Amino acid sequence: DGKPVSLSPLESQPHSPRYTASSQRERESLEVRVREVEEENRVLRKQLSLAQARGPAHRRGNHSKTYSMEEGTGDSESLRAGIVAGNSSECGQQPVVEKCETIHVAIVCAGYNASRDVVTLVKSVLFHRRNPLHFHLIADAIAKQILATLFQTWMVPAVRIDFYDADELKSEVSWIPNKHYSGIYGLMKLVLTKTLPSNLERVIVLDTDITFATDIAELWAVFHKFKGQQVLGLVENQSDWYLGNLWKNHRPWPALGRGYNTGVILLLLDKLRKMKWEQMWRLTAERELMSMLSTSLADQDIFNAVIKQNPFLVYQLPCFWNVQLSDHTRSEQCYRDVSDLKVIHWNSPKKLRVKNKHVEFFRNLYLTFLEYDGNLLRRELFGCPSEADVNSENLQKQLSELDEDDLCYEFRRERFTVHRTHLYFLHYEYEPAADNTDVTLVAQLSMDRLQMLEAICKHWEGPISLALYLSDAEAQQFLRYAQGSEVLMSRHNVGYHIVYKEGQFYPVNLLRNVAMKHISTPYMFLSDIDFLPMYGLYEYLRKSVIQLDLANTKKALIVPAFETLRYRLSFPKSKAELLSMLDMGTLFTFRYHVWTKGHAPTNFAKWRTATTPYRVEWEADFEPYVVVRKDCPEYDRRFVGFGWNKVAHIMELDAQEYEFTVLPNAYMIHMPHAPSFDITKFRSNKQYRICLKTLKEEFQQDMSRHYGFAALKYLTAENNS
User: Fold this and answer.
1) pTM score, two decimals?
2) Residue-wise DSSP of 57-117
3) Which superfamily, per CATH, for 421-714?
């Protein structure tokens, strides 16, 4: 009919006026047609936009024109009517945000906890969004490392991330004393005009403790309503703080009436720069600090002091754009219905424990995003071209080269799967040892092995690097478990790296590589989560590193492995006690009953009487637990689940001419547990075993190609074994 075809998510919702019983069928047919008429739509949209543009006030965007979807009345019925009108094809409609216009968002983020909060905020924005997003993250070194890895592995289409060094900005605001718990980072929103790119004209600024309940484009659309010298979009503060009546002698910073809350800010950067915003806020801060001495609410105090002097700068946003859930606020006046909610702000130090009669509803909304599967947010924006991403293109190329009819296709695909990764999920502190001998214990685990963490921490006092394979919901369970454990909370030298679940296999070697890559010591002990190291192993290994000159030689120091079949074990406190338990049948050499070859080359008979380290030769299927330098090769990702994941790594160490040396006074003990899901699949699924055999053969062929004649022994050894 010559009209643009609209497939906006709004029209697929049951509460939309256009929704009918047959809309699903119609939608499917429209999706087929849209490819043919997309070009026509683009032209028509452009013509419609030109017709609506009534002067320069509509040209304030960074890339294209921006329009409003709501009138800011706070009336939910008017709002819904405005949205429906915004989707009509009449020229006199209430204008809307351009379909593929980029929305810019700035967030200040520092430290481990704030990095977790940012993820929840971003999830809520991504869940509702229909536009490309550009996040500008003012981050310290910790947050940058965490969030750069997270977004790189998240691979969300039409999302761009830029980082700005928060530590470089400290000198801009460090002269301002601040009593607020946000510290120096709570003042950095003041310098955004200087920090963000000079060609960026406007930006939405958000605190990390924000949850979106609507499409952020609706907020972006409010920019077009700024008039005259309005350059700041803010919601009125919903507490009585700035009224100065909270307690006797309470003396807040000057503010206009109740003042404004800076958890959500719309900044017209280009106009602020022309107004000399930097000079404006600095002069105001200097003047007020002469009497106030420090800020109590960080940047918010200074913003309000500037506004008190220059009220014309503010466009007051309706309060549903920042429903402030601190104690004793008027937040309940911001909404009459669930559909009125736009943005929830947990702006109390109590966070989820705040008092509000609807707090259960808000808490559940927050927890929904907290535990929401972030992989589901990787969806493409229909009709909006994404910027070329080299990693994504390489991944698609690698996957396209795989044969989908291959019976081992799923195994091969897992090697190229990019798993979303959140490094340092909990606070981490490590002070490097002065003697440069420090050793990190490296291991990986899933939810069913969490109970081993406390025991390992009691046995190993040194740094630990753990990769945990969890879903988003399990990550939150782990967080609660860790925060409830005195043992785990007392240890700050444990790095917990979450690798989020995806696919049907347990990516054991990817997890090991993640844990290995993020150690801070020169040496690492490659262990497994089901083993408890002997008491004192950490210090013993540090001495062995010096004794055996690991810094200047290619050695892999073997820690002999034993096992118990008893869930309750009196752990041996010495080698003599361990030998006694071996003789009594309480302990066994590891996998003696089912897989002798895995540890036979350790030569346990010699170990019984050894008092000095001794060298052993590689043999087929050898898979000891070793201490190596941090520059040792990674594990091969083609091996997933059960089988050959450690064997292949030890083979590669041998190919690189590592010398295997058994430590005479070291040991570790495997604790019993139920069989893993992957070993059950290996035992019960013939195709699994066939594919593992195929992958082994391919690995050996790759070894021969890479290491030449020296690697032929692996093929021979495999054939003879």
Assistant:
1) 0.83
2) GG--SSSS----S--S---HHHHHHHHHHHTS--TTSPP---TTPPEEEEEEE-HHHHHHH
3) Spore Coat Polysaccharide Biosynthesis Protein SpsA; Chain A (3.90.550.10)
